[in-house]
Amino acid sequence: MPERAVSTTSARVRGLIVSFTVLAVAFCAGRFSLPVFYPVFANPKSFGWSHSEVVGGGSVVLLLIGLLGPLIGWLSDRFSPKAVILAGCVTCSAALALLSTTATLLQWYLFCTLLGIGIAAASLVPASMLIAPWFTKQRGLAVGVINAGVGLGGYVFPKLSTRLIAQHGASQAFLLLSSALAIPFLVTLALTPKSPASESTHARQSLANAGGILRNPILWIFGVSLFFAAHTLMGVQENLVLYLRGESVTPANSAQALSTLLGASAFGKLIGGAAADRFSSRISMLFATSCLILGVCGLLAVDPRSSAVYLAAAIFGLGYGGIFNAPSIIAFEYFGTERVGTILGLFMMFFGLGTSSGGVVAGAIFDATHHYSTAFAVDLLSCLLAFVLFWAVGRRPVTGPAPLAAAVKKVA
After folding, report:
1. CA 53: distance to chain centroid?
2. CB 111 within 8 A of CB 105
3. Strand (E) positions, 59-215?
4. What is the pTM (predicted TM-score) of this model?
5. Tell me, what's the pLDDT at 262?
6. How do the residues of the chain divide into helix, strand and coil, expressed in percent and rounded to 5?
7. Cβ pair 334, 276 in contact under 8 A
8. Is the distance from CB of 62 to CB of 116 less than 8 angstroms?
9. C-beta separation of 202 from 343 below 8 A
10. Which domains does the chain have, with CATH numbers?
């Protein structure tokens, strides 16, 4: 095998390892462990906060992951995905350590804000940009592979956090999770491949092309679709443990249901990525939203204390994984990989707005009705709207990536 081919293969493998590890640990340690801590803060014998107040902290995290998407994408173009990820690991670790000292609702929101900033910098945007230049083919599958790290971390960390809380208490559990961020930090530092020479022009990108981006109809069609789909994702995921605990399901079984959902999302990411390569990102999204619809219907229909709840969670997880791929595979399919950080960040903004609203809206509906059936019905409606919008796009429009790509390059 030629030396150049060996070098490229090595870079691809190292890039996949780094991005997979970052998403599995740096993203998941704080993001998917947080809901397991909600019952601690909602317990009347300890903090006694309402469900919407508690879930609001997670919604702050999700909102920042979305709102900071364009900035994180620009910073990844301006400096490098590696630098952004390293900064994110440090910030996440500091935020988790501070969460161990939480005593007031104000502190809860402040520390969750810091956590959201850190996770945004160690999220799908820089992780996807790190591998994209190395994959001219099967890019959707590559995105699915690294996003499977979110499924793995999503399966491990809720169960791990539940055990840590039971054995050491919530405060010590946050500190132990904080120490886990050393893993992605060191892996990123040691294994990240150097970017191809063509990527060196990324440093000259500017946000001045924002007007051209915002006038592109694809951004709005897919962006609004992502908002509704993401709203459903977090409306269910953020409240699943609270819902099951309220139905007298044990803490271990509640965490198992959440872990099943997030673990199944790893397979959803791989299936969704392969479908995007074989067909299109639109077909991948239609499959994912169909799974979400079936999953929510299952949660509304089955007895929460029965094993059937795990099946419903798994089906929902398949759709969850497919939607999680969406910002990257849509951006890369329609706009390529050259200086795409701002575009990918804008898709993540829509995604983040949906995720940040989903959890807190469902929590507020429960506070008002004292039933999660109404909250999950609203999530079902949101997912149906996403499905209709993805369907309405039809085949790939005549308006392709060329005008937008040209607008981006004009500022380089």
Report:
1. 22
2. no
3. none
4. 0.73
5. 82
6. 85, 0, 15
7. no
8. yes
9. no
10. 13-190+204-392+399-410 (1.20.1250.20)
Give residue 409's identity as a one-letter amino acid code: K
Q: Cα torsion at 235, 61, 353, 26 (round to 10°)? A: -90
What DSSP string describes 126-166?
Answer: HHHHHHGGG-SSSHHHHHHHHHHHHHHHHHHHHHHHHHHHH
2 backbone dihedrals φ, ψ, rounded to 5°:
-55, 150
97: closest CA among 173, 21, 183, 187?
173
- Pick the more confident residue, 408 or 329: 329
Dist. CA 259–CA 12, nearest whole Å: 29
Is the per-residue pLDDT at 17 higher than 90? yes
Residue 314, helix vs strand vs coil: helix
CB 325 within 8 A of CB 144: yes
207 in Cβ contact with 342 (< 8 Å) = yes
For residue range 137-161, what is the model confidence (pLDDT) as tens digits? 777 888 888 888 887 888 889 889 9
Would you call 138 exposed, middle or buried from its count of C-beta atoms within 10 A (0-12, 13-18, 19+)?
A: middle
**Pair of tokens at residue 300:** 């509304």
CA angle at 298 for the pair 297 and 302, rounded to the nearest 5°: 125
Q: What is the pLDDT of residues 79-107, one digit of tens each?
A: 899 999 999 999 999 999 999 999 999 99
Q: Which residue has the tokens 């979110």?
A: 150
Q: Residue-wise over 162-184: b if at least 16 C-beta within 10 A, else e?
A: bebbeeeebeebbebbbebbebb
